[in-house]
Amino acid sequence: MELKNKKIAIDDFMSERKDVLKTWVTGKDVTNFEDGVKYQSTISADKNFAKKLFEADRDGITLSQPRAGVALIEEHIELLKKLQVECDLLPTTIDAYTRLNRYEEAAVGIQKSVEAGTSKLNGLPVVNHGVAACRHITESLDKPLQIRHGTPDARLLCEISMASGFTSYEGGGISYNIPYAKRVTLEKSIRDWQYCDRVIGLYEENGIRINREPFGPLTGTLIPPFISHTVAIIEGLVALEQGVKSITVGYGQVGNLVQDIAAIRSLRELSHEYFRAYGFEDYELSTVFHQWMGGFPEDESRAAAVISWGAAVAGMSGATKVITKSPHEAFGIPTAEANCQGLRASNQMLNMMRDQKFPPCKDVDLEVELIKREVRAVMKKVLELGNGDIAVGTVRAFEAGVLDIPFAPAMCNSGKMLPIRDNNGAIRVFDAGAVPLPDDVLTMHQDFVAERARVEGREASFQMIIDDINAVSHSKLVGRP
Ligand SMILES: CC[C@H]1O[C@@H](n2cnc3c(N)ncnc32)[C@H](O)[C@@H]1O
């Protein structure tokens, strides 16, 4: 396959579309693209995800959104009706079988859920349910709806979701491959996601604005901001090339206040820097802050504290949206009430933050500059490897370990770069692997780590990293001995 970061010609798209729609029986529901456009044009403006984000970003408001999804349509509607009372934006989380295009097994899961009278899947199998059933969801709810998942080949899911009236689609060719799959090549996942972005570009050409959100947190395990920013910017550029106009770039909270605030500010500024450098001007940018994505304390009060801290920092950072967690995070899929508890705690914090702004802070400025230097160094190398083509450069950057996502299952990820917390809990680089950080930046990271090792009276080691991975579950931030 000849991968290139080029808008897919409409004839090539329509030809590929015929094959995509054959991959499951419900593909026939979307044979006529215009039918999806016509249905989308019936969605009221106050239920358009892109519009809601644009207005919130303009007004400096941080919106709240949970994750949620169950197997059966009526059950899912009932769940979202409870959640929409407490949130600004609604999800529909897709089940694990659908994420791997295993629709036969999703069908079994639906059957078992019907027999059991409760969900036996960890999300909604949208492809199996098809357009008519999913339109019932979007018609039954009052808030904008987004598809959230983890699908390397999300082409059919995209077609059916958009024709069903969802107005936002999460994911990307890197962020839904590397953390979620083992044997999928980046050439294929990036190309399949160009197709998804082209679907949304085609809705845009027909006057329907659909929001796209690259998956910010990646593996959610001690991810340095510069790594997730680089992936978000690349996926944003790929989406813009396919005609997407509404982009939400994201970041997973690490827990150090200065770094988290600097992360959101630098993410916004760097996205504009690269999008404009590529000649894009007429896009709408927003940011999303994911509450702590690592291990959670089992105790529900302690979990509520983690959630509240995430909401407070999201508000302080000026993120357009915060993705909330629930006090059941340590156990699994939350009940509706637990999900609502996470939303209520988050909204209380957002409301109390709304009347105040985080003051100018030298430490935040320094962290912003450090993140910018790191992202620019990696992006420069990615573009060199691709001879200017960001998609080709991305594939080669992962092959060379120039882009390297910690603790990822994907075989195409080299997994040599190791993160670690410094003495204040910020994420630093313990081993850069082949990630091309400037020498003086590398020295700064080594100094940060050496300071912690001195304070703790132990050598920086892999054990220290393990301690950091477990720290929050044990009610700490830094994994002290
Ligand atoms: C990205 C991982 C996050 O998604 C959450 N998640 C995954 N599936 C569901 C689900 N079906 N309902 C609610 N939360 C969910 C999970 O708790 C974790 O916090």
TrEMBL record:
L-glutamate binds at residues 67, 99, 148-149, 170, 176, 180. One of its GO terms (biological process) is L-glutamate catabolic process via L-citramalate. Pathway: Amino-acid degradation; L-glutamate degradation via mesaconate pathway; acetate and pyruvate from L-glutamate: step 1/4. Its cofactor is adenosylcob(III)alamin. GO terms for molecular function: cobalamin binding; methylaspartate mutase activity. InterPro entries: Cbl-dep_enz_cat, Glu_mut_E, Glu_mut_E_C_dom_sf. Keywords: Cobalamin, Cobalt, Isomerase. Belongs to the methylaspartate mutase GlmE subunit family. Heterotetramer composed of 2 epsilon subunits (GlmE) and 2 sigma subunits (GlmS). GlmE exists as a homodimer and GlmS as a monomer. This is Glutamate mutase epsilon subunit. It comes from Morganella psychrotolerans. The gene is glmE.
